[in-house]
Amino acid sequence: MNTIFVRMSNGQKVNWPVSVVIGIFHLGAIAALFTFNWYVCGAAVVLYWLATGLGISMGYHRLLTHRSYKVPLLLEYSFAVLGTLTLEGGPISWVATHRIHHQQSDRPGDPHSPRHGAFWAHIGWLLFGEANHSNTKKMSKYAPDLAKHRFYIWLNNYHWVPMIVLTVSLYVIGGFPLFLWGICLRVVFGLHTTWLVNSATHMWGQRRFATHDDSRNNWWVALLTFGEGWHNNHHAHPSSARHGLAWYEFDPSWIQIRVLKFFRIAKSIGEARITIEPCRRKEVLQTR
Ligand SMILES: [Zn+2]
Ligand SMILES: [Zn+2]
């Protein structure tokens, strides 16, 4: 069992640095609502797609954590930089945390299981306890493949640098409203949709596969997270780049990976598939 998250899940000590930063972003998100215009709203949507869609779903998760497909290193690094724009930490810490989640899912040592309460799984695990998951050296143990890259070590230590650069750029281009929408509200929305994968999709939805955890397929979380809500499929087949296995399971990240495949940019793509045989009314799983 890992020792990083055990003390966290037992402790109730407030993690002040993390709590204060998350709190400030939430205040900014509320302030953003008073400065609405379509221009800043559109910018926030595009940034959400870049940071949470390409950075987290396609980058941190399906590419870096599970290596479910390959792309040229420059594009992989670019996805990782986009991932830092979500306030979800650097790639080594994120990947290590998520790999531990898969190893210990809904058992002791899982960083964010709803078995410790829905609030804990959603945000409590970050606000309380002795979180030391920003320790690059410690987390590298769970992501040795990433720790071989000096770039990832640097990015993990200085994951806040791209966010600062983006913040200054948005302020210069569009003033306070663009900062509030493009950074604060967009980041808070992205944090909660990502956290829903940890909380909601381990509580609510259908279970296609009898996995050893509580993971579920949740369509509305999938809609908010570029397909990450097909979480029971994912726990059953973590090396599949495709999470929405049936034709009706909308999975935007999988569509984007297929676009990259069409242009011969993405290779070695893991794919689990469900085909429904109409006469037998049975779902057949194929993997390759
Ligand atoms: Zn899970
Ligand atoms: Zn995963």
Q: Report strand %.
A: under 5%
Outline type? globular
The overall pLDDT average reads: 93
Largest sheet, spatial ordering of strands = 1-2
Given the structure, what is the number of helices?
13
N-to-C span = 31 Å
Order of SSEs, N→C? Answer: HHHHHHHHHHHHHEE
Q: C-alpha Rg, in Å? A: 19 Å
Structural class by secondary-structure content: mainly alpha
- Unreliably modeled segments: none
Give the helix proportion (percent range): 55-70%
Listed once per kind, the bound small molecules are: zinc ion
Largest sheet: 2 strands, antiparallel
The beta-strand count equals 2
Brief overview:
The chain has helices at residues 6-10, 16-32, 38-65, 73-84, 91-104, 118-127, 136-140, 144-147, 150-157, 161-198, 219-224, 231-236, 252-262; strands spanning 272-277, 282-287.
Describe this structure in words.
This protein is mainly alpha-helical and 288 residues long. The protein has a domain at 16-214. It is built from 13 helices and 2 strands. It has helices spanning 6-10, 16-32, 38-65, 73-84, 91-104, 118-127, 136-140, 144-147, 150-157, 161-198, 219-224, 231-236, 252-262; strands at residues 272-277, 282-287. Strands 1-2 form a two-stranded antiparallel ribbon. One zinc ion is lined by residues 61, 65-66, 98, 102, 234, 238.
